[in-house]
Amino acid sequence: MTGHVSLPPLQRDAIIACLPQAVADKVPVILVKATTLSTNADLLEAVRSGSVDQPTLLCADSQSAGRGRRNTPWVSPANANIYLSLSWPLPVIWRQQPGTLSLAVGIAVGRLLQQYKVAGWGIKWPNDLWVNGKKIAGILIELATDRLQQRWAVIGIGLNVQLAAWQGEAIDQPWTDLQRQLPGLPLNRPQLIAELLTHLVAVLALCQQQGFAALLPEWQSADLLCHREILLFTEVQPHPRQGRAEGIAPDGALLVKFVGDSVATAIYSGSVRPLADR
Asked: Helix 189-210 and helix 99-115: axis angle, to 10°?
């Protein structure tokens, strides 16, 4: 613990002060909690109950039951990282191609890393961001229907900012944070949240207007799995399958050429472990 200094607690007004007006207009409700079970769970309940009827950003300083995909725990110590969720009306494009939403969000997080000149970052299908072989961020997309039968996406993002080694002991895979990638640079969480939200709104708007095809080249340039040997884990298979990742399809599917197959199979759900570095 020696030498670790927690970041200041989040303040709603500080986040709003950093937001461009155009973004504030698109996300009119900004909420901050000192602690909660899960920002995604909170917003899902708010959408279903009707207490949220416009795009809303919810941030928390800590989560006691933060989670990633497949209900894996997301380590969420206080005043260390970014834990946020955004409720967003679900447009037709994502009802037709739901798998592309998490890919689009990954691009938004990647743009933030690129903005800060973080070297060696990339996206691991479908929703993790890694830097030089270590995880720095994750994305959780969940859907909800409000009382008027309107469909919403709740977009959860966890981004490691300044995590002490002892705080990360419970993480079950290699990890890193922004401070380790940007030593000596003062990190301002309200500013980071505002910048991340700005990138997120821009990506969502572009995808809604032009479809994921407009983002596909950008995603491909950040793809950490393409042409790598992988293990694919799915809920329907008792054992992982080995294959070679061959990029992604326009609808967001991971293309995998399994051992013994001559053509690639489109995979829409699962988790992936690369077998070796490039």
From this structure: 140
